Amino acid sequence: MKLVIFDCDGTLVDSQNAILASMEQAFAFLGLPAPTRGEMLGVVGLSLPQAFAALVPDADEAARAAWVDRYRSQYRHTAATPMNEQAPLYPGIAEAIATLGGRDDILLGIATGKSRRGVARVLEREGWHGRFLTIQTADDHPSKPHPSMILQAMVEAGVEPEATVMIGDTTFDIEMALAARVGAIGVGWGYHAAERLTLAGAHTLAATRASLIETIDAQLAAQAACLAGREKRSA
């Protein structure tokens, strides 16, 4: 079996409107000027406390806790408004997940900086309950790029690193995959530029959603060939 792990925000769902609006409201609540759009999107993927620390490194613990609470409250409200369509799936993603989920050689997982509650909303909306064998969230792990989420996903799936890939849109996803010694696949439609993903060490890049499955299969095949080569040399 092979394990294909997806990031959520910026990879499966386009949640930038809800994220940016919630961040801006949280900064306004604290009386702080909001960072630029690029700066805020640049920390998507980190757990909330780490994201705020990256944006406002001089802030104290109390300010960080207040910002996180306000962000979470605002996000639940913002993401539920019709204007934001509760962070819609990127076009083509539903079909890709259905295709991968229907294969008998693939197990699916999620590793995300979202809360488990946030992931549950996406699963409920898309009818994805039972689709992902393993779901790892910021509630239970250190922030990306720590490899904890991927390591736990492999334990739950019973799959080795050589048969595992992580797909994400940020350098944090790529760094997490490399730390866990699994395949690192970047995507060309998320919140970090493709060039950044390549520089971070991505093994390959799915430039478009139409090429996603082909890219996953090619990376898994390359990993299998590498493993076979090592076993042959050690025989």
Gyration radius (Cα, Å) is 18 Å
By DSSP, the count of extended strands is 6
Low-pLDDT windows of residues: none
Order of helices and strands: EHHHHHEHEHEHEHEH
Secondary-structure-based class equals: alpha/beta
Hey, roughly how much beta strand do the residues contain?
5-15%
Distance between the termini: 23 Å
Average predicted confidence as pLDDT: 93
Shape summary:
globular
Report the total helices: 10
* Widest β-sheet, arrangement of strands: 3-2-1-4-5-6
- Major β-sheet profile: 6 strands, parallel
**Helical percent range?**
40-55%
List the helices and strands and how they pair.
Layout: E1 2-6, H1 16-30, H2 37-42, H3 48-55, H4 61-78, H5 93-101, E2 106-111, H6 116-126, E3 134-136, H7 148-157, E4 164-168, H8 171-180, E5 183-187, H9 194-199, E6 204-206, H10 212-234
